Amino acid sequence: MKFLLDFFPIVLFFIVYKTMGLYAAIYAMIAATAVQMLVSRYQTGKFENTHLVTFGLLVVLGGVTLALRDPAFLMWKVSALYVVFAAVLIISIWVGKKPLLERMLGKELDLPKIVWRQMSWIWGLGFVGIALVNAYYVQLALSARDALFGSTDLDPKIELTELDCVATTMPDLCNIAQQTEESWVNFKLFGTMGLTFILIIITVIMISKYTKQE
After folding, report:
1. Alpha-carbon distance 86 to 77, whole Å?
2. If both were cysteines, with which of 20, 41, 62, 68 could 24 make a disulfide (CB 3.0 to 4.6 Å apart)?
3. Which of 66, 15, 17, 58 is closest to 35 using CA atoms?
4. Distance between CA atoms of 99 and 102, rounded to whole angstroms?
5. Residue 137: enclosing H or E segment and its boundaries?
6. Could you give the C-alpha distances from 75 to 54, 80, 141, in angstroms and in order?
7. Would you give per-residue pLDDT tens digits along the chain (214 residues)?
8. DSSP class of residue 187?
9. CA pair distance 73, 165, nearest whole angstrom
């Protein structure tokens, strides 16, 4: 259930992007993240730090994207967020008495110290991997976008999803720009969710011999 709640804003972003475009999807994701925080607050009695960091970056970078009509800020938010998470997890191995994962899950799981450290490294490096893959898709999308608007008289603030590429002077560049932006949106949902699920599977395998119940 928590896994679904964590990905609810991204799923909504994906759906709204496919039906209404990027900028409407940003508004939807900000609202969904606020709802996510309130639901978590209701269930646990407190706000989760990860939700607060995510919401803060989303409001700032998403707000700049909406104000300037430049998707670069929102696109790079994914990489920035996962780098922050990775840094916090890895640094916590040496700072404090316990790694962050142990502080978060230690009451539910009784694991050796070395396993907590290994899990911190796995999740930290996994988050770095997600940030790098996102950066790859962002670079493709922004390069295609720059090529399109640099070669035409189109307003760079226009939504790519609104363009009829056949009617533009550079239909091939238009198609590439639309496809690469859509590829980034697809990765934002399916890529991050799939890679996170792989990390969960690795974690379950690691801790399975230390737990008596499934």
Report:
1. 14
2. 20
3. 58
4. 5
5. helix 113-151
6. 13, 9, 9
7. 565 677 889 999 999 999 999 999 999 999 999 998 888 888 878 888 788 888 998 999 999 999 999 999 999 999 999 999 999 999 999 987 888 888 887 777 788 889 999 999 999 999 999 999 999 999 999 999 999 999 999 999 999 999 999 999 999 999 999 999 999 999 999 999 899 999 999 999 888 877 755 4
8. I
9. 25
The residue among 185, 169, 179, 189 whose CA lies nearest residue 144 is 179
**How far from chain centre, in Å, is Cα 100?**
20
Q: Can you tell me the distance from the alpha carbon of 13 to that of 26, in angstroms, rounded to the nearest whole number?
A: 7
| Rounded Cα distance, 134 and 205, in Å | 26
Give CA–CA dist 130/119, Å, rounded: 16
Q: What is the DSSP string of 172-186?
A: HHHHHHHHHHHHHHH
Q: How many residues does the chain have?
A: 214
Q: How far is CA 112 from the centre of its chain?
A: 30
Give the sign of the dihedral formed by CA 175, CA 181, CA 183, CA 186: negative
d(C-alpha 163, C-alpha 186), whole Å: 19
Tell me which H or E stretch contains 72: helix 72-91
